[in-house]
Design a protein that fits this description.
seven-stranded antiparallel β-sheet, alpha+beta, Naphthalene 1,2-dioxygenase Alpha Subunit, Chain A, domain 1, 438 residues, 2 domains, 10 helices
Amino acid sequence: MQTAFPGRWQAVLSSPPSFDNEDDMDLQANVLRQLKNRREGFSLEQPFYIDQDYFKLDMETIWYRDWLFMGHDCEIPRAGNYFTVQIGDYLVVIVRGKDQVIRAFHNTCRHRGHRVCTKDKGAAAKLVCPYHNWTYDLDGSLVFARQMGENFDKADFGLKTVHCESVGGYIFVCLANEAPDFAPMRASIEPYLAPHRLWEAKVAHKTTIIEKGNWKLVWENNRECYHCASNHPELCRTYPEAPTATGVQGAGDDPFIAEHWARCEAAGLPSEFKMDPTGQFRTARMPLIQDAESYTMSGKRAVRKPLSADVPISHIGTMLLFHYPTTWNHILGDHAISFRVLPLSAEETAVTTTWLVNKDAVEGVDYDLEELTHVWNMTNDQDRSIVEENAFGIRSPAYEPGPYSVDHEGGVMQFVEWYTNFMMGRLQGDKARLSAVA
């Protein structure tokens, strides 16, 4: 969907981060200098993790201008089903239309700006702003506005559209006026997701925790298992802590992984490690430990009904999907787990975990919710504590960037390299464009 935003709103959303005063210019120049001079293989300098101005620049440069994972098709299975989300300062509602198309809108009434949908999720034949009952159809068009005068044209005041794409049961949005091309990501990840038919699964459980640390610390912690043996006893019962398990460092050279890929590929399941040229997203189907099939304390399946009938073999391991900056995922034979990252402030991040199961699976019959969620509930809480202690230490004036382990933290180095290159490219490009029109 490539709907343009009219008037001043278009100027706001399509503009790069502003150089509207000397402080902004000094900040961006300083960030560029620090990124250019960053010591390779080391963590970032302190302001990148704790400074509110650096955080604001992250939001303007990445989060307000790129594709972001928001949720799943199966969360809104019927026309009128919707859920809401806040991305920084932006309020968004995602709704399934009468034509079954999933759309996203700015959740701001075109009358006086009241939130149209005030609940986290719901179902409605039409979207009605509770302030003055301005009423919008599920396609965003304004259908009712009481006593607005003869010259009022409802066609001019529909909800403002947010770019929205669905792929393999995953919903992505982009707040920018002109969204980056979604086609390369679709072409890359759709074959890996398709066999699991997640668009017709159902949500078994969903939880959100607040981690008191910068969003980049959340990602850095996720991208390595150097810490797993000493912090994640439940996860380590099934998930290998070897560096190759992340699909970044030499996975194709590991005979066990190569054999796993060959077996899954022969069954029609794309599996080999695949990463886009920028390093922003990647997929790989990785084996679990020994005979483990699922993330449970026993390693046995948590759900009796397979997630999808299109997966013809057992012991498929976990299909890993990563997309910076918002999501990492584990898709197994019996269930799938998605993780969504949303920054709240320079030192707070919301992490939402969603467990998906076969649409016909019955809790208490086909699965026990505690068994299904135990490993990742424990792991999430452990990671929350790790991130918060990491953030606490970084606040100290004694902090300075430290070296990553080449053997174990290749995934972290790859993430920091992506962040560095992405920010430098955007900021240098913005500065060049603004200089050209000055």
